[in-house]
Amino acid sequence: MKKLLTVLILLLSIAGSNLLLSQALTGKISGTVKDRKTGETMPGVNVVIEGTLKGAATGADGEFTIDGVPRGTYNLNFTFISYEPLTLQGIEVNPGVTTGIEALMADASIELGDIVVVATKRNDSEVSVMTNIKNSR
Q1: What is the mean pLDDT of the chain?
Q2: Which of 102, 67, 70, 106 is nearest to 86 (CA)?
Q3: Which residue in 14, 27, 122, 137 is a FRET match for 105, CA 20 to 30 A apart?
Q4: Ordered domains of the chain (ranges, CATH)
């Protein structure tokens, strides 16, 4: 029993040190996305590290965090419907450090001209004939 306990403690300490080591080798990218014109925070923006599968979406407060990013320099891509895609280049990530970002996205929606809807009444179907008879009484 004592030997089993010793082995268990040894395994847990190795697993814990590996977890701490992996965290020490990576950093975080965290920030806020806002509308360039109004300054309002933007929920639901997709934030992706270019060339990787790592990314996040902004929360209701417009904030995001990407954990476990290895040391290096990265480009961040921001996309959202009806906004121009944004790329922030040269974002440096260091182990054990959270890199702060503030992204300002520009509205790309367009205003269309007037739309005219034209409709005609069909008189050649059974339903329209029955409706005409019913309305004539």
Answers
A1: 86
A2: 106
A3: 27
A4: 26-136 (2.60.40.1120)
